[in-house]
Amino acid sequence: MAPIWFKPKRYGYGATPVTWQAWALTLGVVAAVFVLAWWLIGFDGAGRPSGWNLIFFFKGVAILVAALWIISKRTTGGEWRWRWGQNN
């Protein structure tokens, strides 16, 4: 059984981090997206990024988001479904 790092959201679909491991994972993914953007797109003002850099950036973001989604779904203490605020 996987550890519980996330809990189901009270409103909407998905989960929210509840442990330091979940927060570290979430912030790590956000930091990795910023690093990819800086490295591939070039937020340093050097000019316009090439089309290949944009493709690799979006592929990298898709991989990172998919990994976050899989890990958070496996470590959530409950099922993911749409919720309207009720306790069930």
Question: Which key phrases capture this entry?
Answer:
single chain; 88 residues; 4 strands; elongated
Short description:
The chain is mainly alpha-helical and 88 residues long. The chain contains two helices and four strands, in the order βββααβ.
Question: Could you characterize what this model shows?
Answer:
The chain has a domain of about 55 residues. Helix content is about 50%, strand content about 10%. The two termini are about 20 Å apart. The protein has 2 helices and 4 strands; from the N terminus they run E-E-E-H-H-E.
Describe how the helices and strands are arranged.
Blueprint: E1 6-8, E2 11-12, E3 15-17, H1 20-41, H2 51-74, E4 83-84
Antiparallel strand pairs: 1-3, 2-4
